[in-house]
Design a protein that fits this description.
The chain is mainly alpha-helical and 58 residues long. The protein contains 2 helices and no strands. It is 90% helix and 0% strand.
């Protein structure tokens, strides 16, 4: 499994947690930062998926 896939998932989860904490506490900056990190993690995870597929020859 490509490293970007695992790192992307980690960022996606961390971002989701930050987003929820920001919502609960009313901290809009933390909520926004969480959304950004979560979306960046999704992109990184997709890059890893593509790399895995390329290695498989698909």
């Amino acid at each position: 499994m490509d490293k970007n896939r695992t790192e992307g998932m980690k960022h996606e989860v961390k971002g989701a947690v930050k987003e929820v904490v920001g919502k609960v506490t009313g901290n809009h900056a933390k909520e926004a930062a969480g959304k950004i990190e979560k979306n960046a993690g999704k992109v990184q995870k997709e890059v890893g998926k593509a790399a895995d597929e390329a290695r498989k020859g698909h």
